[in-house]
Amino acid sequence: MGGQKGFTLIEMMVTLTIMATLAAAALPVVNKYTQRQKEEELHLALRQIREALDEYHKAALSGQVAKATDASGYPAELRLLASGVADITSPNEKMIYFMRRIPRDPFCDCEGRKNEETWKVRSSTAEPDSFDGGKDVYDIRSSSALSGLNGVPYAQW
């Protein structure tokens, strides 16, 4: 008589059970990794936009960008950082771009919105916790109601 070839049903079931257990154990690790990646994107986007806002403000105060005498010197809209503004000190009024593009809020669950619409903005005259827009863009924050791995809500980063 020949030897047994192949696997029994029991051996297959045990193997599938072990594989399912390993997959279930790995899922939370994968989810945390994905969240950590998005958090890094959020940190980078916040830093880039806030630096661009400061550069715009410096350019406005130095007279390179047109501003009204009673204006703060911050851009009226977030999109101006990427769409550009005229350099009034240049003889041919070349454009100044403070960002290549406005990054999207990685935690915003808002399909169909433009990147600049995924952020909450704060005016220079608004209270520190009031991100309801205004006459200019002084600061931004995430529009997400979720909290980070550190327990701090993304809207407070």
TrEMBL record:
The keyword Transmembrane applies. It is found in: Membrane. The chain crosses the membrane at residues 6-30. It is a single-pass membrane protein. It comes from the Bacteria. Coiled coil: none annotated. Keywords: Membrane, Transmembrane, Transmembrane helix. GO terms for cellular component: membrane. PROSITE patterns: PROKAR_NTER_METHYL. The keyword Manganese does not apply. It holds the Pfam family N_methyl. NCBIfam families: IV_pilin_GFxxxE. This is General secretion pathway protein GspG.
